[in-house]
Write a structure and sequence with these properties.
Elements: H1 4-17, H2 26-47, H3 54-65, H4 76-98, H5 106-128, H6 142-162, H7 174-181, H8 192-215, H9 220-238
Helix pairs in contact: 2-6, 2-8, 2-9, 3-4, 4-6, 5-6, 5-9, 7-8, 8-9
Length: 247
């Protein structure tokens, strides 16, 4: 038995360190599109800022320089700037940490997504205990929640790039709409990239609709975050069971 333990431990290490077969890795990324939709809808309704879609935040930042719009909270530009910065730090740090270990290894992907889910759940808990206000964008305490949510979307996009699915950016749809409409094989029966782009748009839209309706409820944004965090945690565990890439 003593001889068997090191052997089993070595097998486990090899299993966790193995790169996954990315053939069906688009499915978790489509789930990430849903998470983007549901959280961004809830966050914009609650705090007037996007957590994943940084194009909108860039425009909010630009308008804030001009003091517009006049009916928005005075810290709109700061919230947008913080979201952009946190998103970029999430991309930078997650990529830098994952690269030496292999960006598509089971354990690398699992840890990344589990940390993303944990970050969302921490934000949900802080809202639940009223450490962060749910629907008061004027409060400075909102600035605590934004980094917790925005950084993990940066890590999410970095993972989608590492997995090789550029047609599923998971947080932005402008390029998806363009690539979908300009695809010369748009009407071809078998077109996997077209199908993924269309599915990504549907998942973001579906998530946004769910986030919007849930936000109408009392504690709705908190519920949105519980759903988003749980989804990311499930995906983090799911990576451990993905098949191994061919040698």
């Amino acid at each position: 038995m003593a001889d068997g333990r090191p052997h089993s431990s070595k097998q486990l290490r090899q299993y966790l360190a193995a790169p996954i077969n990315t053939h069906h890795a688009d499915l978790p990324l489509l789930a990430c599109c849903f998470v983007t939709g549901i959280i961004d809808a809830g966050a914009y309704n609650a705090w007037g800022t996007f957590m994943g879609m940084q194009t909108g935040n860039t425009i909010f930042l630009a308008l804030g320089v001009a003091g517009l719009p006049t009916n928005r909270a005075p810290l709109q530009w700061l919230r947008s700037l913080l979201a952009i910065f946190s998103f970029m730090m999430g991309s930078l740090i997650s990529s830098a940490l994952a690269r030496p270990f292999g960006t598509t290894r089971r354990l690398t992907l699992s840890i990344s997504f589990l940390l993303q889910g944990l970050s969302i759940l921490v934000a949900a808990i802080l809202i639940h205990i009223d450490a962060i206000p749910e629907n008061n964008p004027d409060s400075n305490r909102v600035l605590i929640g934004i980094p917790l949510l925005a950084w993990q979307f940066g890590a999410q996009v970095a993972a989608s790039r590492a997995l090789g699915y550029s047609e599923i950016p998971t947080t932005v749809l402008t390029s998806v709409y363009n690539d979908l409409a300009s695809d010369p094989k748009l009407w071809t029966w078998k077109n996997a990239k077209r199908n993924r782009r269309a599915a990504a748009a549907v998942m973001v839209l579906g998530g946004g609709i769910c986030g919007g309706w849930l936000s109408r409820l009392r504690d709705g944004f908190g519920i949105v975050l519980w759903i988003g965090g749980a989804t990311k945690a499930i995906l983090g565990l799911a990576w451990l069971f993905y098949g191994e890439a061919a040698p």
